[in-house]
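Q: What does the assembled structure look like for these inputs?
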Amino acid sequence: MSGLTQAHSVVAPSNLSRRIAGALVIVYAVITMIPLVWIVLTSFKTPPDSISYPPKVVFTPSLEGYVNLFTTRTRQSPEVLKQLPEPTTWYDKLVRSRNMVIAGPSNVIPRFVNSIIIAFGSTFLAVVLGTLAAYGFSRFRVPLKEDLLFFILSTRMMPPIAVAIPIYLMYRELGLSDTRLGMILLYTAVNVSLAVWLLKGFIDEIPREYEEAAMIDGYTRLQAFRKAVLPQAATGIAATAIFCLIFAWNEYAFAVLLTSGTAQTMPPFIPFIIGEGGQDWPAVAAATTLFVIPIFVFTILLRKHLLRGITFGAVRK
Amino acid sequence: MTEVTAPTVFADRVAAATPSTIGRSVRGLSDRVIAWLFIGPTILLLLAINIFPLIWTIYLSFTNYRANRPNAEVKFVGLDWYQRILGDADVWAAMQTTAHFVIWTISIEMVLGFGLAWLIDKKFRGHALWTTVILIPMMLSPAVVGNFWTFLYQPQSGLFNYAISFVTGIEPSSFQMLGSVRLSPWAIIIVDVWMWTPYVMLICLAGLRSIPDYIYEAAEVDRASPWRQVWSITLPMALPFIMLAVLFRGIENFKMFDMVNLLTGGGPGSITEVASITLKRQAFESWRTGYSSAFAIILFVTVFGLANIYVKALNRVKQR
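A:
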């Protein structure tokens, strides 16, 4: 279809101008990807290679960054090292070649686990609450509907730091400081505004006739919601869930102010991965690479819904 | 696809299932009760985690409470903090810094983002793939972004300094993106532009795609030049979208915290100290809870007020 209309259209861009446009966009895309590619490359460098001048584009790949990320190590004198039994695994050998021995696991796995639990927990809650509320706003006559919807949206306009002070005090009173539950509740509250707005858009598009037909067939309103609306809204719910997941996964301001240890997530933790003699850039890069992989997957899954998600459903594609 | 097949799927489901007995017992619930059961939990959660803290902040802003001395006697100080903030030169400096960042980042992101959208709209081969690639930076965590740009900005070994020196011939270690008074604001602006231009591009692209082809065809018949078409058709028709992008980026950048905290922490000195950083220092480093609460309220009212004025303007443009 598009071929036909383009052939007849007076305004179809010429081949040459299309190629120039393509080339310019590709140049931009390549420049914009360089920092990310550089980080992934750095994660496979040795610490000396990572800070060499001029920057090394060609280097012997090493997993030292990843080993350093997951372990804590101690430096030993050559005499002590000689007395130790020969290292057996590749990571032991790698560490030993730098005159160190592995002392134990690092904090990174608990931080990753926190990120996963908090992101999934808050996403689940936000999507459940958001779906119910969106259905309520979409189908029922609610007094002050417009005001309530605007109120829900406006909670997103507050600077996080402004709400962080009383939340810090409130959590201290309730014993929720630096707990996963506290962070889950907080992220749920932040995400639910997006969830309601997005899902309301999706549910508005499902014809009411489905529920009406179901209710004529003897279903109650709740059954009609469950059997007729939810399956239809599944795509929208999935997209919303991924948006909530990305937000909770990426969030930094609340995490840095309200968590310090037990509930700390990856974003505030990554800058503090320190190695021998300062910042261990390959380990930091390794953490970044592992942290960013899910985001790539999500971006590809979401590409059709991105516009809706970032504009609170104000713009539809 | 799913829309077409869905009704039959649903008909099957209706045929297969019969209403359960549990369903019958709740049949008595009226729509009004259900509406509140559905909306209530969300409203309650937002009241507990957003509105209650906000009200608490308002209360604290009238007191001399300090969060690091929870047992000290709390005294009311009236509008003292508000008066002091409005007379505080540091606060005004931070607000000015914030305004500079907002203006610079939005201007650059708008020009680049609109330009990119305009190019992508020409639908060259592979445009969908490249659009997705361009969108990746805005999906990343600001923490991760701030962190790896710190690495790229290293004066001795960073890729950024090396690239600039490669092009200009200036010694890479002779300029410090994050440590110099002249360059550190630009270091932050560059990262913000890198991260958020895709966002503006996406909204502008939606704007461009919303313009029907026949308008251009009519312009072509009238022999309007390409530049005239951009000026008289593309820009005005895409204006509501452009304004939406300005609104969202403006609100976000007014609250800017993550990137500044990670890249410069407000320094060197207080050159890059935006309002959120001042607020964090007052609240969580100096523990001046009352003062910072009042500042938080002032910031919130500012964002809210500006956003409201802007939304009204936006609606007027949309209705045209």
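Confidence is low (pLDDT under 50) at residues 1-9 of chain A.
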